[in-house]
Amino acid sequence: MSVLESMGKVRIKPLRSGWDEVITTREWASASLEGFPLHEAARRGDPVTVGMLLSQGADPNQCAPCGAAPLHLASLYGHQDVLRTLVGHGAQVNLVGPGSGLTALHVAAEWGRTEAVRLLLDSGAAPGAAIPDGTTPMLLAAMNGHEGVVRLLLRAGAGAGPSRLDGTTPLYMAAATGRTLVVRLLLEARAPTECRHAPTGATPLYAAAEKGHCDVASLLLHAGAAVDRAAQDGSTPLYVAAAMGHSNIVRALLDHRAALEGHHQLLIARGACPTAALPNGMTPHQIASLHGHTALCQLLPH
């Protein structure tokens, strides 16, 4: 019996890239704010009502049951006039929301509110603020592809490399979600290419290969990312690209010449080992065959 036949129903597991583990503020958009008129006015972007309530003694740093202060909610939608009014009346720009640990800068960064981010930074917001699991505004901006916010954070001194406790970095999240422009910015800021997502052992290149992000893979490879860096299960970027049927990335990882043809056809300057097998003996050719990617089988040696 061949190795392939003996493997039978073996399948490579889709990578859990980490974004499903990141705390976000999406529920604040619809959270009930009954009994919290200042919060309601801040969320809907009403600076007149916000100013009136503050002049009547409303607390700009009180958090609603959802865990958000008025400054968080104004940041959610980028209401700059409301943000200025709140800050002018004593709102703490680095106030941490109970439960989430998020600051207003986290919120504005996640939603790509570039001018709100600029205003908060100019008002003293800490660019590298991290919640208990290590999530920073930079990671949220990178994950969501907000290159304007990433630029502002980099200029403000936020590092491109700091990771969460599980090893997830802004570069890893940008690579996993296919944020090409953000990946370029982070690489220019010397973000480390070999950081690993601890639960899986995957690198940014592995994540890009698994998701089929060709342009991201090209940038990482030209920046010196290791081609054959394996995840915890022993699978390499080539192996996972073959399993998922991403022929352009397979060609990229196999070729020794640098050239980029269009958006989908990708060749790179480093060569991956085409016959490297998992500990169970299965090679990229065999995994491609197992998943029915017959065209890929013609590219991969037995």
UniProtKB/TrEMBL annotation:
Keywords per UniProt: ANK repeat, Repeat
Repeat positions for ANK: 37-61, 66-98, 100-125, 133-158, 166-198, 200-232, 233-265
Pfam families: Ank_2 (PF12796)
SUPFAM superfamilies per UniProt: Ankyrin repeat
Coiled-coil portions: none
InterPro entries: Ankyrin_rpt, Ankyrin_rpt-contain_sf, Multifunctional_ANK_Repeat
The keyword Repeat is annotated on this UniProt entry: yes
Keyword Repeat annotated: yes
PANTHER family: ANKYRIN REPEAT-CONTAINING, PROTEIN HOS4
Protein name (record): Ankyrin 2
Source species: Paratrimastix pyriformis
